[in-house]
Design goal:
Length: 105
């Protein structure tokens, strides 16, 4: 588990307050990503009868890619490499949103 003192030991005193800020931001972004993941799952279920198998396969691949990035942050905590965690969450959400848009076409 990360501690503010561990951040300060390697960086600067300024990093002391950043740990809670980063934890809160990761938690918030993770919540958004989990919500969009649910929407993506629902979109796939709703589209199963109405879209081509190729499009459905593409959408499921996008779901898996998004889930991989989401779970990496979810299980890793996201704090030690904050910037990378945000990039992973953004990529996950983009995959989920893009698959929803794909199935609406």
């Amino acid at each position: 588990h990360g501690s503010a003192q561990a951040c300060v030991d390697c960086h600067t005193e300024r990093h002391y307050g950043m740990l809670n800020e980063w934890k809160n931001k990761i938690k918030e972004e993770l919540g958004y990503a989990l919500d969009i993941e649910k929407e993506a799952e629902q979109a796939i279920k709703a589209a199963e009868e109405n879209v081509s198998l190729e499009k459905l396969k593409q959408a499921k691949g996008m779901l898996q890619k998004g889930r991989k990035n989401l779970r990496m942050v979810e299980h890793g905590g996201g704090v030690h490499n904050y910037k990378y965690s945000i990039v992973l969450l953004d990529d996950a959400m983009n995959n989920f949103e893009d698959l929803i848009d794909l199935l609406k076409e």
